[in-house]
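Class prep. Protein, please:
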Amino acid sequence: MNMANGNKPRVLLADDHRIFTEALKVLLADEFELAGVVEDGRAMVRAARELRPDVIVADISMPLLNGIDALAELKEHDPQVRVVFLTMHRNIAYARRALELGAAGFVLKHSASTELVMAVHAALQGRTFVTPDLAADLMRTGKPGSQRTADPDLLTARQREVLQLLAEGKSAKEIAAVMGLSARTVEDHKYRMMETLGIENSVELIHFAIKHGLIR
């Protein structure tokens, strides 16, 4: 745990809703130190590496890179990173995917006032907290042989990054600049995704991104 001089555990907030973030600061202030606040997934990855917080509280739907893919990127470099997702999406697929990647918690925003502090403490203790609203459904749908929506898992992490930026309205050149790729490589990713998913055009591809929570 990266607590300075034995003080409060340090928490990084990642959410692009500024009014909600201000409320979170108040909610967490008594028990945790604020390490920083960021508003998109790429900034979350950078801040996590630079600030080394004890726990990250992150939204799922953020600009440039969604929270789940940001977690996947962080886990590659630091398997011990602790991320508690705080989201408005009551969606089993989101929760399952986050937990499979090693999320430390999954809390619905409407339950934050009663559950978030518990979830952060659980993360600090190496435990996983899942909001009771979803826990029973997760157990039921997670049984062997149960059906699950796996379509997003057909894509690579890099392809999901490209897809999110496409769905946010960025051009191939703009995506290339954000990701450090060539525009041609971005287009190649786009057409490979369409082939993999059986999607025929860019509009359907964007609808897929929205349906599966890659953008708000």
